[in-house]
Amino acid sequence: GFEPVYGARPVKRAVTQLLETPIARAILAEEFVPEDTIEVDLDESAPQGGRLLLRKGPKAATASVDFAMARG
């Protein structure tokens, strides 16, 4: 989250590490091509709290983000 001393930098670092880099690598490996929609899901059964899954999604005219995680 937000740290008063660091601002949103930890969040940006996490987004880069967990989303941007894996997506960029998949694009470079030609797993995704222009016009693909990339779906991101969380596999919670994986060790250490889960891992992100990237897969081609249905073609979409608009982008949407639905992110809700309840941890307790």
From TrEMBL:
Keywords: ATP-binding, Nucleotide-binding. This is Clp ATPase C-terminal domain-containing protein. GO terms for molecular function: ATP binding. The keyword ATP-binding applies. Gene3D superfamilies: 1.10.8.60. InterPro entries: Clp_ATPase_C. Residues 1-40 form the Clp ATPase C-terminal domain.
